[in-house]
Amino acid sequence: MALLAGCTTFSRDGGMTVVNDLTRPRIGQEAVWLRNDADEKSAHTATRALLVKPLAADEAVKIALLNNRGLQAAYAELGIAEADLVQAGRLRNPGFSFSRLRRADEIEIERTFLFDVLGLITMPLRTELERRRVGLTQGRVAGEVIQLAADTRRAWVAAVAAQESATYAVQVREAAEASAELARRMAAAGNFSKLDHAREQVFYAEATAQLARARQSAISEREKLTRLMGLWGDDTRFTLPARLPDLPKDARALREARDLEAQAIKTRLDVRGSVQEAENLASSMGLTRATGFLNVFEVGYQRNSESHEPRQTGYEIELRLPIFDWGGAKVARAEHAYMQAVHRAADTAVRARSEVREAYGAYRTAYDLARHYRDEIVPLRKNISEEVLLRYNGMLMSVFELLADARQQIAAVTAAIDARRDFWLAEANLNLALTGKSPGALMLTSSPSPAASGSAGDH
């Protein structure tokens, strides 16, 4: 009994080693459980060091893993599950009852010592079930870590793209202001019609409104990133890079795409968790069958004394009689719960296959579009603008044609920023679909960022 009760103890790290073993190959970083003031002080120091320079995506993820309080709250589930495991490996405390009865000069004393025999018999099975539940909890917490890393990376991409669009919107507004001033002077000199003058004025007014929207979008996306990183106070004054990273040289190979489904089934934590849950329920059916018919079995030792009578000793057995409840309902419930888990595991696998195919399609399309804008559309627009400017300087084209070409180049640059943003978002979604869980509703292209339309500037 002493050996059984002492075989299950609390681990030194609460199960974080297992969580990191699951997450490290998927996100390339360590998760940290802040369990005392020293841990929090160390995390704060590390965060301050990372915020000194412009924040890259990997550093943003590292800060989120250190500071996000929602994730720290999820780590408590590890401690709860481990406490249940330790409790399952300990016997219920034995009972002792004492009674003293008096009749005239006679005194009767009863002493009873009770021990839970059924708990001892079922302890190995209960301990194994709780150990499986601990593994399930570790997988679930690892999924939360991967989800936070993906959300932070996507928020970083959106924040940098919104900041880049806002910066470009400032250039557009300044160019639109210059165009409006030129139109005003030409109209005053009689060289510009009222219609053309009004067009330039409304173009400047719309560029001003678009700049306000772009700035608000940049603030909103930055605050989303700040919340995920768990920052407040002076730490919210971090800086972001001026623009998103360039596209990788090549997209993921088509050969890899054919293996994506198998990789998702093998590595996705939600698939592994659903299968493990079904296995846990299958194991728990054995305990349900064992205790459904007989759920109370205690043995007691008695020692009674009476005045002027010899001492009585003996034993007592307490057994709950299965007269009204034979445990059939408990067993049936366990069987249905197991079949429910089996079907959920199959459904999760089907969804994983579909989601990874969809995620790869969005990734490949976003890469091709971003590369097309980078290599084809933007260079062509730049060449066209240079030719138009040469002809305007040579008085071969009018100012109207120059301004019309400027508006077209603005649209191309804005679309190129959006395409690069959509690619990095699609890559984050693909990584999540391959390793963690469902990335949610996937979008081929996001709505255009609020960049103003205005004059062509070298972007």
Summarize the structure.
The protein is an alpha+beta fold.
Distance between the termini: 76 Å
Helix tally equals 12
CATH topology, which one? Answer: Outer membrane efflux proteins (OEP)
Pattern of helices and strands: HHHHHEEHHHHHEEHH
Largest sheet: 4 strands, antiparallel
In CATH terms, the superfamily is Outer membrane efflux proteins (OEP)
> What Rg, in angstroms, do the CA atoms define?
35 Å
Question: How many DSSP E strands?
Answer: 4
Layout of helices and strands:
Elements: H1 2-6, H2 16-27, H3 37-50, H4 57-67, H5 69-88, E1 95-103, E2 106-116, H6 117-188, H7 194-229, H8 254-258, H9 260-267, H10 269-293, E3 297-306, E4 312-319, H11 328-393, H12 399-435
Antiparallel strand pairs: 1-2, 2-3, 3-4
Helix pairs in contact: 2-6, 3-4, 4-6, 5-6, 6-7, 6-10, 6-12, 9-11, 10-11, 11-12
